Amino acid sequence: MEHLIEIKKIRKVFKTGTVATNALRDVDLTINKGEFVSIKGPSGSGKSTLLNIIGLLEDYESGSYKLDGVEASSLNDDQASELRNEKIGFIFQNFNLIAELSLYDNIEVPLIYRGMTSQERKQRVEESLRLVGLWGRKEHRPDQLSGGQRQRVAIARALAGKPSLILADEPTGNLDSEMAASVMDLLYQINEMGNTIVMVTHDDELASKTQRQIQVTDGVVKQCDTETELLKEQEASYA
Amino acid sequence: MLKYNMKMAWLSIRRRPVLNLLMVMAIGIGIGIFTAAITMVYQGSQTDLPHKSDRLFLVQLDSRNLASEPVDNFNKMIDMTYIDTVNVSQIDYPKSQITFGWLTDQLVNVENKNVMPYRGFSFVTNRAFFSIMDIPFLYGSAWSQEQEISGAPVVVITKARNDLLFNGENSVGKQIRLDDKAVTIVGVIDEWHVRYRFYDRTFMKGLSDDAYLPYRYALDANLSRNARFECWDNTSMRYQSSGTEELLASECGWITVWSLLDSKDDLAEFRNVLDDYVDGQRASGRFPREGGHLLTSLDEVMAYVHNKNVDYQFYFIIGSMFMAACIFSAVGIMLANFMSKTREVCIRRALGAKRKVLIGQYISEVAVVGFIGGVLGIFISFGSLHLMKLKMFHSVGFYADIADLDLLFKLDAVMVGTGIFIAIISSILVSITPILRVCQVKVSRNLTME
Q: Which positions fall inside the ABC transporter domain (chain A) (predicted)?
């Protein structure tokens, strides 16, 4: 299998005054193209920091991170933005849609920064909104939608740029169970289309439905291929 | 990208109407007062007849006696005597056109009983005055050469007086009375105004003429003069308010003389012509002093006047201070505006916006706010200038024509452009720190916050 993400010996330290906190300790992680991986762990374990590093939103003290063969530490800010725009789609727990923009305009944002023509953008936005079933509401603003619909828009925005990787941070965290199931169905469907998805979640049931589960505990990553291994790791982390 | 930035700017303004309204008002008021001040400075520092002001010369001859004080600039120099005025205007030098004149005032009356008699100002001059000063005619023309020489009782009136006396109809051939003398109208001039009344050296603002009279007629009719009058033969002072042949032959100066040269390169040659004239007069016992003549271009005359005009410097300082205060208050408004965009900035950064692209986007947004503020400022400036014009109109007295003040308070395209440009630039300057600050925020921390 071809690697999309290759992380070796990544260390991340947060400093507050004189106090240093090791958020990630010598993390090694490899994710293949087309995988659907979940990252689990208690609050403060470092799972969101890991997701931010993968998303090129956070730098790190040492180690190596290659996204689709490109070494992240060699990129300046502009290059990182370009790579993020081209390769990564984000889905956040709180949707992070821009309130004053219509659904159409929200989905168009990453395409604008990629320098696509108006015609290309229109085609991509339409495809994405049709996929999530909201093309008919393209002129609506986010505050005119339910939570589940907003998350569908966020998914459409993440997909519009046809990225290699979709990073989802607690994508169902703000949704009721019915809405959450609907969003997860959509993610499975997207994964089946060949997209790589890395999802941070607290929900064991959702995590169990992904191809691989990763446990983060005190900044240390344990990769578990079976649910039994994961349960053992979880027990150890809460002990 | 510009189109997208403009769209985002408009949406953002709609999203935060109060903050943007405050910003627009702060900029608008600051720019309004500042633009009004710089308009007064700018218009007040302009010279009339700019296309010929470097070759239109005030001519002054110094025939004073040896005891008179030395003079080094036009403002302290005497006006011309009638003898020298006539002689200089008759010099055979085809590259120069000469005009001259002085102010008179009379009671103006017409047959129409509905028009009350009023005291009006007439400028006594020669027919070259109209062409040299680029005065347009609405009806008729200047008096003829024959009428000028013969002292015919004719007059050219202004459009404003024609409107008042004849309801704007063509009045050529009709008569008006100046005191007890009837004169026939040969021409009505169209709108013609100067910022400062330079041609008789009063430099008054808002003092318009009612009529123009041929000099020979004014002298023959012994019309009173309302001009500075200096004699260096004390016995001649008795001529101050009357005109006789003795006055015309006296060493009293009251006539302002101008020479329009074909080219400013002819100046040296014209000086030589005047030197020759002075030498000739000196041989006959006049011009006892050294030197003898002073030529000052209209540009130089007005530069001297502008330097003396401290009112406008005061307005400029007040306007600048007012704008600085408004811009200073706008900094706080902008900081609040952009700090409220932190989440949006982080979303856009996460979606791949480069920092410099976002900075450009937000600069476009404040440029739009600055433009709107600038437009508001132009309206405020327009109102302020109108109020200042009214104030000056009432302060200069009953004889003023408000149209004569228009040029001094005119908000022209240059000033409108300057005002809007300054509004945009100052909006960007006050916003650049908040924009840079918000574009530096840590993306990951702001996006994961609930």
A: 5-239
- Nearest-CA distance B444 → chain A (Å): 6
- The arrangement of strands across the sheet holding A212-217 comes to A88-91, A165-169, A196-200, A36-40, A212-217, A220-224
Q: Which pLDDT value is given to residue A236? A: 58
Choosing from B241, B263, B285, the residue where a domain stops is B263
Cross-chain residue pair B348–A113, CB shorter than 8 Å: yes
Identity of the amino acid at B252: C
- Min Cα separation B354/chain A (Å): 5
pLDDT under 50 in chain A at which residues?
none
- The alpha carbon dihedral of B124, B128, B130, B134 has a sign of negative
Q: What is the mean pLDDT of chain A?
A: 87
Helix (H) and strand (E) counts in chain B: 16, 12
List, for residues B272-329, the tens digit of each pLDDT value.
Answer: 999 999 999 999 888 888 878 899 999 999 988 888 777 777 888 888 998 889 888 8
Chain A residues within an 8 Å CB radius of B343:
96
Per the CB < 8 Å rule, is B355 touching A96? Answer: no
Kindly state whether residues B255 and B325 are assigned to the same domain. Answer: no
| Chain A: residue whose CA lies nearest to B1 | A112
* Token pair 């916003």 in the structure block, residue: B431
| ipTM, two decimals | 0.89
Task: Report d(CA B148, CA B126) in Å as an integer.
Answer: 7
Interface test with B, best of A112, A116, A153 (most B CBs within 10 A): A112
Question: B117 and B174 share a domain?
Answer: yes
Instruction: Write out chain B residues lying below 8 Å of A86, CB-based.
Output: 352
Is residue B148 included in any domain, yes or no? Answer: yes
A170 touches chain B (CB under 8 A): no
pLDDT of residue A234: 54
Which 3 state secondary structure label does DSSP give B291? coil
Helices (H) and strands (E) in chain A, counts: 8, 10
Q: For B71-98, what is the mean pLDDT?
A: 90
Residue B397 pLDDT level (bands cut at 50, 70, 90)? low
Helix (H) or strand (E) holding B355: helix B355-396
Class of residue A25 by CB neighbours under 10 A (exposed 0-12, middle 13-18, buried 19+): middle
Q: How far apart, in Å, are the Cα atoms of A98 and each of A63, A69, A142, A154, B200?
A: 35, 32, 8, 10, 69
Whole-prediction pTM? 0.76
Q: Provide, as residue numbers in chain A, all residues whose Cβ is less than 8 Å from the Cβ of B354.
A: 77-78, 81-82, 113
Rounded CA separation B302/B404 (Å):
17
Residue B268 within any structural domain of the chain: no
pLDDT tens for residues A87-134? 999 988 888 999 889 999 999 999 999 999 999 999 999 999 998 888
